[in-house]
Design a protein that fits this description.
This protein is of the alpha/beta class. The chain has 8 helices and 10 strands. Helix 1 packs across helix 8 and helix 6 packs antiparallel against helix 7.
Length: 274
C-alpha cells in the first residue's frame, strides 16, 4: 500500500473492500457511498458467494478491508488479509476469544521483505477506549475492569418469559465472547484495549423492558477511577443484537486511517468537511 498524502483534501481515495452487507456492513456501505466518510471509496462488496479470485483481487486493490460478518468469517479473513500486507477492521472481534494470543491470527506476509497487515478493532458500541487504554498502559497490576451489558432477552437468545431483569452471565470477556459470540464484541474491544480477555469481568443482564442496549463500564486503576455509561439505539435490521452506532464507529476509524491518527485525537484540517 503506497503511503497516503497527509492532507486529505489532496489525497488519493482510501480504497475500501467490505465483507458482509448485514446491519453493520450495509450501514458502512451507505455511509461511504453517500460521502459520509470523506476521502474513502468503496471498491468491493464481498459475500459468501464471492469467488477466491474476486476476494484476492479486492484485497490487492484495497487499502483496508472491513469485516462485518461473523466470527467464522473473521477467522478466515484475518490471516488472508494480513498476509497480503493489508489492514483489516474486524467487527466480529469475539474471534480473538478463540485464541490464547490474539496476534496468532496475524499471518506473515507473502513478501517476506514486507510488513504484515494490521488488525484494527473499532470501539463499536462503547467509548472511552482512549482513556482506558492510556491508564492501562501506565499500570495494570492494580487495575480492575467491569463491563455490564443490558440487552433484550431475544438479542441474547434467552427464551424464558422474563418479566424483570435477570443476570444470565458473569465471567471473563473471553468466556462472554465464547458464550455470546454475536453480542460480546464491545466486551472484547474493552478487554483488548485494557487488561486482556481473561482479566476483564463481564456481566450480562437480560431485560424484557429495554428498547435500547445499555453498557456500563467501570475501571479502577492507580491513575483514577472511571465510570462510563452508554445507551444505544438498535439497528432495526439486526434483531436487537447490534447498536446503530457500531457502523459509525467503523466510519470514524476509516477516517482515522485516512488521517493517520489514532483514537482520542481531534483532527482539524482545511477541507470543507471533517
Amino acid at each position: 500500500m503506497a503511503p497516503l498524502p497527509r492532507n486529505p483534501g489532496s489525497a488519493r481515495p482510501l480504497t475500501v473492500a467490505l465483507i458482509g452487507a448485514g446491519a453493520i456492513g450495509g450501514a458502512v456501505i451507505e455511509a461511504v457511498e453517500n460521502g459520509r466518510v470523506p476521502g474513502a471509496r468503496l471498491i468491493a462488496e464481498l459475500h459468501s458467494g464471492s469467488t477466491s479470485d474476486e476476494i484476492d483481487g479486492a484485497i490487492a486493490e484495497a487499502d483496508v478491508v472491513v469485516e462485518a460478518t461473523t466470527v467464522d468469517a473473521a477467522e478466515e479473513f484475518i490471516p488472508r488479509v494480513t498476509a497480503a500486507g493489508k489492514d483489516i477492521i474486524v467487527c466480529s472481534c469475539g474471534v480473538f476469544a478463540r485464541h490464547e494470543n490474539p496476534r496468532e491470527l496475524i499471518a506473515a506476509p507473502h513478501d517476506r521483505s514486507a510488513l504484515p497487515g494490521r488488525v484494527l478493532v473499532p470501539a463499536g458500541a462503547v467509548g472511552g477506549l482512549d482513556v482506558l487504554a492510556a491508564a492501562s498502559r501506565a499500570s495494570t497490576a492494580d487495575a480492575r475492569l467491569r463491563h455490564v451489558t443490558i440487552k433484550s432477552p431475544a438479542a441474547l437468545g434467552v427464551d424464558e418469559n422474563l418479566r424483570e431483569p435477570r443476570e444470565v452471565f458473569r465471567g471473563s470477556a473471553r468466556e462472554a465472547a465464547l458464550r455470546f459470540p454475536r453480542t460480546s464484541n464491545a466486551s472484547v474491544a474493552l478487554a483488548l484495549a485494557t487488561l486482556g480477555l481473561d482479566r476483564a469481568e463481564v456481566i450480562v443482564l437480560a431485560d424484557p423492558q429495554v428498547s435500547r442496549t445499555r453498557h456500563v463500564v467501570e475501571f479502577d486503576s492507580p491513575l483514577g477511577s472511571y465510570e462510563l455509561s452508554f445507551e444505544n439505539s438498535l439497528d432495526p435490521g439486526s434483531g436487537g443484537r447490534t447498536s446503530a452506532i457500531t457502523a459509525w464507529s467503523v466510519a470514524e476509524l476509516l477516517i482515522g486511517i485516512r488521517d493517520r491518527v489514532g483514537p482520542g485525537a481531534v483532527v482539524l484540517d482545511g477541507t470543507a468537511e471533517t
